Input
Amino acid sequence: MSLMESPPVRPITAVAWSSNTSTCPRAFTLISIAEDGAPANFSRGIMKSSYFLCYSKETSGGLVVCDIQVISDKELLPHGYCYIPEHMEPKASVFKKKRVCVYLVPLASVHTAVLDLRLTAKSRMMLQHYTCAGDMNGYVLWCKKGPFRIPAPQAKPRSLSLDVQQLSLDPPALPLRPSNAPPLPPGKISHRRGTLQSDASVEKDGDSGHIYGYTAIDGVPFSLHPRFETQAGNMNSTNTQLTNIRIKSVQDIENEYNYPFTVEETTARRTRPSLSTGSTS
Output
């Protein structure tokens, strides 16, 4: 199974030196045994104190190790690299002829990261799928690199409250007038109708480009003049007069107002008398 098909492996985010498990920082793993079974103590009897490599895969720091190297103390530190920290006992130190440095990148921008670290005794032993980072004090440091991408966060379903669900951009429906309601007296206007007319005028003015959507007649009560109220009461007599009006057809109008223009046509056809050119005045 390839690295892309295998389950996602957490990358190494930090590497450090430690004297033992008691000084090893929290969330770090101490490499105490090499792959060939030898103790992974880098002191090798040179010093009384011991020191081991340890690493962490805790991503809370936001950094990931994308490369690791073992360099001589006489070499310049490569650009972008930093020496790994030391978590040692009091008065203990690390052998300084060779040092371990790492290259850290932000977690969000990493593409290839160090996924695992292994140690072997300095021999011809090779580890498959691992890259040699260098040797130090009789040990060879191996790192396993692979592609890594931070998983995309999944959106959590949010529960909408009842108040949010009831929000709507549509205006509330107006109550209908019941069918058995008493009819309005002639010449009077209802309060609801006046409200509707006011709302309609505001909406119309807003569409026409008025600054505030109001006109000078907004809010002025509307009612019929008493003179027209009395005329509205005599509507029955007016209806009787309207029923006596005769509606003429097109043929009736043609017969009544037809004019043949005979006199004009006869006059136009008359020849005007010609004047002789040899006569004297």
User: Anything to note?
Assistant: The two ends are 134 Å apart (CA to CA). The chain has six helices and ten strands. Helices lie at 162-165, 191-208, 226-233, 235-243, 250-257, 262-269. The beta strands are 14-18, 28-30, 52-56, 63-72, 81-83, 86-87, 98-106, 112-121, 131-136, 139-147.
